[in-house]
Amino acid sequence: MPEKPSLDTINKIASGDNEFEKRLLSIIKRELPQEIEQLNENFAASNYIKVAENVHKLNHKINIFGLEQGSRKAVKFENELRSGNIEMKSEFDAILEKMTQFINTI
Amino acid sequence: MNCIIVDDEELARAIIHQFASIDTHISESKEFDSGIAAIKYLNTNPKVDLIFLDIHMPGFNGFDFIQTINSEAKIILTTSDKNFAIKAFEYDAIVDYLVKPITLERFQKAIQKAIDKKPSEIKDDSTEELPVSSSKDDLFVNVDRKLIKIDIPTIQVIEAKGDYILIKTEQKNYTVHSTLKKIQERIQRDYFIKIHRSYIINIKEIIDIKDNSVLISKNVIPISRSKRPELMQRLNLL
Questions:
Q1: What's the half-sphere exposure (Cβ side, CA atoms, 13 Å) at B208?
Q2: Given an 8 Å threshold on Cβ–Cβ distance, is B18 in contact with A20?
Q3: What is d(CA A70, CA A63) in angstroms, rounded to the nearest whole number?
């Protein structure tokens, strides 16, 4: 069964502090599209080492949304990119799309 | 304790900052989105007790940062990569590492470890100061208001970082207010070559070359298209 993003981890980090939780979500809504854009720019420029760095950074947010399978894929994709292998790009894009759709609903 | 948070991701900084504001052992926390910005701050604010340091920052990673700073602050690494644990403990200043996403409970354990680790347990790995004599292989650079001697043949990579250059040697890294052009004039040796507008490398330190990058120590250095023929010409190719 495909996993879905959740706010459980953010709730745990915020420990009932609603203002802090709102702030975290607002940062994610701002940072996530920027990070995806950077990744795509570096990918278009075939700078796969930079793309690997982008994937690594995005993995924190993948974990924040509780996407464990997604996180494992991100680690694998990051390693593949460091060897110049880009085959997992569309698979990774699907994870990012899932997160983007999720943040648009909250 | 005064602490600084060094992470290129705002989300990560915000979480640590919030936890630090709750923790009674921490009186002040400042955030920096790059290693260079934090080093500039540390150079003028030596009274930092604790550094939360992201290992994976673009270009200038956490280990580069540790090898560059002249600070007695304890360090707590933050990472999304569990595999960095082993390497983390090669550095005496590191008291703990936190895997992201960080929870408050785990954060507080790390703070306790920082408190428990006595200053004497942290080795002084400060660099040598101005010597009496100087040889032709010595390069003196201004770091934190001190002239530091670098043995030129030990330089592996020099990277341009805005108004600064990062000089990487086998043992330590140095962030110096200078340009690649200026240092190139000072280290005229046949084993140095500029392979990218932001990088000079020591050819003798190359481990391998793959596609458009060179591996030196743990650094993957890009080769620009225009510089590749010159590099290939300088190599002893079979």
A1: 4
A2: yes
A3: 8
For residue B220, the chain A residue with the least C-alpha distance is A49
For residue A39, is it within any domain? yes
Largest Cα separation within chain A, whole Å, is 43
* Chain B residues close to A56, C-beta within 8 Å: 56, 80-81
Whether residue A3 lies inside any domain: the answer is no
CB B81 to CB A56 under 8 A?
Answer: yes
Identify whether A36 is part of a domain. yes
B114-147 in b/e burial notation, b at 16+ Cβ within 10 A? beebeeeebeeeeeeeeeeeeeeeebebebbeee
Answer yes or no: is the ipTM higher than 0.85.
yes
Backbone angles phi, psi at A75, to 5 degrees: -60, -45
Residue of B nearest to A54 (CA): B58
Helical H segments across B144-220, by residue range:
180-186
CB neighbours (10 Å) of residue B57? Answer: 24
Q: How many domains does chain A have?
A: 1
Range of the domain at A46: 8-103
**C-alpha to C-alpha distance for B211 and A31, rounded to whole angstroms:** 31
- Cis bond upstream, residue B101 (ω within 30): yes
Per-residue pLDDT of chain B (238 residues; tens, 9 = 90+): 999 999 999 999 999 999 999 999 999 999 999 998 998 899 888 889 999 999 888 767 788 888 888 788 999 999 887 666 555 566 788 899 899 999 999 999 999 999 988 765 554 444 444 344 457 788 988 876 678 889 999 999 999 988 889 999 988 888 888 899 989 888 888 899 999 999 999 999 999 998 788 999 888 899 998 888 889 888 888 8
CA B110 to chain centre: 22
Q: Is residue A76 part of a domain?
A: yes
- Identify the residue whose tokens are 């569309």: A90
